[in-house]
Amino acid sequence: MSHVSSVSNNAASPALPAGFRVSVAPMMEWTDRHCRSFHRLLSRQAWLYTEMVTAQAIAHGDLDHLLGRGEEGERVVLQLGGNDPQLLARAAREGVAYGYDEINLNCGCPSDRVREGAFGACLMAEPQRVADCVAAMQAVVPVPVTVKHRIGIDRHEDYAFVYRFVETVAAAGCRRFIVHARNAWLDGLDPKANREIPPLRYAVVHRLAQDFSHCAFELNGGLQDLAMGLAVATDPAHAASVPSAKVGAPSSTPAVPAMAGAPVAVPAVDPVHLESLTALAAARRPLQPLTGLMYGRKAYHEPWLLAGVDAWLAAHAEVDEAFVSGLRGVIDEPPSAVTRASVASSAAALPEGNAALTRAAVVDALVGYLERGAAQGVELRHLARHVLGLYHGQPAARIWRRQLSDPQALARNDPQWLRTVCAQVEAEAARQAERLAGREG
């Protein structure tokens, strides 16, 4: 079977459409306002999500605590959990009042707590209820309402299940779907296992993009780096074989008690969807591209991935006019002369997400964030756990992690201490480099 590519081999032709997004997934207890403020230092263009906040909590809780913002700026999405259209509409209104740029409904979380509340992934079994929730929110807010979901639940592995879900929700006006390309097994697997055991089926997301060409589809699940993301986003054939399975090969995943203790075997790939995409290409029908990639725990644990996002988008995506408008203040050219090349070359003029950005510069910015936030009760301990991965994969990274995990040091709540630790890490890294150079010499 020949591979199908939705992009030209011409290097001058951008592989990704204008407005293509890279986003950081909503993660409970992780993507709070301090985490988002840190991530914004690394990428100006990445879309950032809140933790899931339930509509019930917003109706009865402390709004500043639940919805308060840090210094993450624009391109921030409030993710809501719930199943009551009116409560969700009220929560969405509050989100807009706090300046969120989009509202997202969680239809993908498989946790027991969420399932007991009758929302999250189990809502995929009630597409009309989801449609009603989306319609209610859209009726009261001026920003887009999107849905994040799985490709199926439990044994609903047939394409018709997710097709009907998207069809029903799209009919209510939803135009962006963020798709975690795994099934959610609601019985027998905890949330961690649900992120690892149900096989990835990226080709299903590509198939949805073809069948609902009036909607935008963003792919989530298993993405390891930007190069992998580019391959998966632009080539359905590559997507069907990620991470290592061959088309039609049996799953290497062991049988897992997914429903009432019954073992379930799920194919590692979806040859049917790949064949349908191949047929479209053979008929010379252009393939509808995906419009975004969402990174989860990889971006949290290895946040320097985000430092490459802005330049990556400039290199591979059509110019986003909104991005260009924002750059015109730092590019010494008339608007008509702003090109994709000038967007890329302007990276050094930006404080975030560029090749010149250093970890030491990020630490300096974090110190400023803590000092500015001190009057509002922002403390070092609120930020430290989110930045443990800043030096991931770098020499002396262990020093950074150990120091920032020291309760006594954190209790002193001295923002300047971050600079001290950074200097220790950088000095040790330099010593290691000198020793290595000496051995090689």
UniProtKB/TrEMBL annotation:
| Keywords for the protein's UniProt record, in alphabetical order | Flavoprotein, FMN, NADP, Oxidoreductase, RNA-binding, tRNA processing, tRNA-binding
- InterPro entries in alphabetical order: Aldolase_TIM, DUS-like_FMN-bd, DusA, tRNA_hU_synthase_CS
Catalyzed reactions per annotation: 5,6-dihydrouridine(20) in tRNA + NADP(+) = uridine(20) in tRNA + NADPH + H(+); 5,6-dihydrouridine(20) in tRNA + NAD(+) = uridine(20) in tRNA + NADH + H(+); 5,6-dihydrouridine(20a) in tRNA + NADP(+) = uridine(20a) in tRNA + NADPH + H(+); 5,6-dihydrouridine(20a) in tRNA + NAD(+) = uridine(20a) in tRNA + NADH + H(+)
Question: Cross-referenced Pfam families, in alphabetical order?
Answer: Dus
The record's top EC class is: oxidoreductase
Matching Gene3D superfamilies: 1.20.120.1460, Aldolase class I (3.20.20.70)
Q: Where along the chain is the active site annotated?
A: C109 (proton donor)
- Leader sequence residues: none
Where is FMN bound in this sequence? Answer: P26, M27, M28, Q79, K148, H180, N220, G221, G222, G296, R297
Q: What is its EC number?
A: 1.3.1.91
List the molecular function annotations (GO) for this entry.
flavin adenine dinucleotide binding; FMN binding; tRNA binding; tRNA-dihydrouridine20 synthase activity; tRNA-dihydrouridine20a synthase activity
Q: Where is this site: Interacts with tRNA?
A: N106, K192, R195, R398, R401
Q: Boundaries of each DUS-like FMN-binding domain copy? A: 24-227
Report the cofactors.
Answer: FMN
Function text? Catalyzes the synthesis of 5,6-dihydrouridine (D), a modified base found in the D-loop of most tRNAs, via the reduction of the C5-C6 double bond in target uridines. Specifically modifies U20 and U20a in tRNAs.
Per the record, the similarity remark reads:
Belongs to the Dus family. DusA subfamily.
Annotated NCBIfam families: PRK11815.1
Q: Which HAMAP family match?
A: DusA_subfam
Kindly provide the name given to this protein in its UniProt entry.
tRNA-dihydrouridine(20/20a) synthase
- Organism of origin is Lautropia dentalis
